[in-house]
Amino acid sequence: MSSKGVQALSYAQRADNYTNPAAKELLLTMERKKSNLSVSVDVTKSRDFLAIIDAVGPYVCLIKTHVDILEDFDFTLIESLQALSKKHDFMIFEDRKFADIGNTVALQYSSGVHRIASWSQITNAHSVPGPSIVAGLSSVGLPLGRGLLLLAEMSTAGSLAVGQYTEETYQMARDHQDFVIGFIGQRRPTGEGGEDFLVLTPGVGLDVKGDGMGQQYRTPREVILESGCDVIIVGRGVYGKDYSLTEAIAQQAERYRDAGWSAYLERCKSLIGSLN
Ligand code: 5BU
C-alpha cells in the first residue's frame, strides 16, 4: 500500500493493518472519540498533572507524559492516571526517549521508580544505538502488548535526525513491525514497502511559531493534511502557564481536537477523490 493509500483509509480501517495491540487500540480509540489529539502534560506537580488530564480527557485519544519531571511522583499517581484513562477513554504514552544499550534500556523500561512498561501502553526510543535498542525494549514490552515509536525526526531547529539517519530509522522499524508501531516525526515516510506506520507529531501550535528555546510549531492542518501524520501532540498550546484555569484548558483542547479532526476528514476526502 502506498503512503497516499494509507492516508486515504480511516483510522478504524487501519487498525486491521496491525498485529500490535497498542497500535490497534490507539487507532480504534481515535475513531471512537473522533480525536487525533494527544496532550503532552509537562508539569512538575501531581496535582496540576491530574487536573489538566481530567480537563482535557474528553478531547484526547492519548495522554503523553514525562513522569521524570514530577517532583512529587509516587506510584499512586499511576493509579490515578489509569483511573482517568478509564473515565475518559484515552491511552497513555510515556515519552521516555530511551537511548542506551539493549540491556540498560530493558532495565530502565521495566524497573526503577517508574516501572514504565507496567503502565505505559506506548513509549519511544532514539534509533542512535542501532537495532539492539529495539531488541532490549521488546524483550520487556512485547509480552505485555506494548508498542514502540522510534524517533525519526525532531521538531527542534537544527535537529541532527535528518536524511540518512531518518531513512535508517524507517528501516529499523520495518525490520521489527511486531513491536515498532511507528514514529515520532514531522512527515509520513514515502517509499514504504507497503507497511502502515503511525506517525505522531510534536511541535504543534495554532497561535505561535516557536518557544524561544528551539521548539518549532506547525498547525494541525500542516501536520495532518499536508504532511500526512496521524496524531498531533500539543503541550503548552493547550494548558499555557496557569494550570488552575481548567475550563480554559478544556476549551483549548476542544479547539485543537476540532482542528486536528477536520484536517483528517479533509485528507480522507481529498485522497479518496484522487485515488478513484
Ligand atoms: P509543547 O509544549 O507543545 O512544545 O510540548 C511538546 C512536547 O513534545 C514536549 O513534551 C517535548 O518533550 C515533546 N517533543 C517535542 O516537542 N519535539 C520532539 O521532536 C519530540 C518530543 Br521527539
UniProtKB/TrEMBL annotation:
Q: Which domain of life is it from?
A: Eukaryota
Q: Which family does it belong to?
A: Belongs to the OMP decarboxylase family.
What name is this protein filed under?
Orotidine 5'-phosphate decarboxylase
Top class in the EC scheme: lyase
Per the UniProt entry, what is one GO biological process? Answer: 'de novo' UMP biosynthetic process
Organism encoding this protein: Pleurotus ostreatus
Iron among keywords: no
Q: In which pathway does it act?
A: Pyrimidine metabolism; UMP biosynthesis via de novo pathway; UMP from orotate: step 2/2
Q: Which UniProt keywords apply?
A: Decarboxylase, Lyase, Pyrimidine biosynthesis
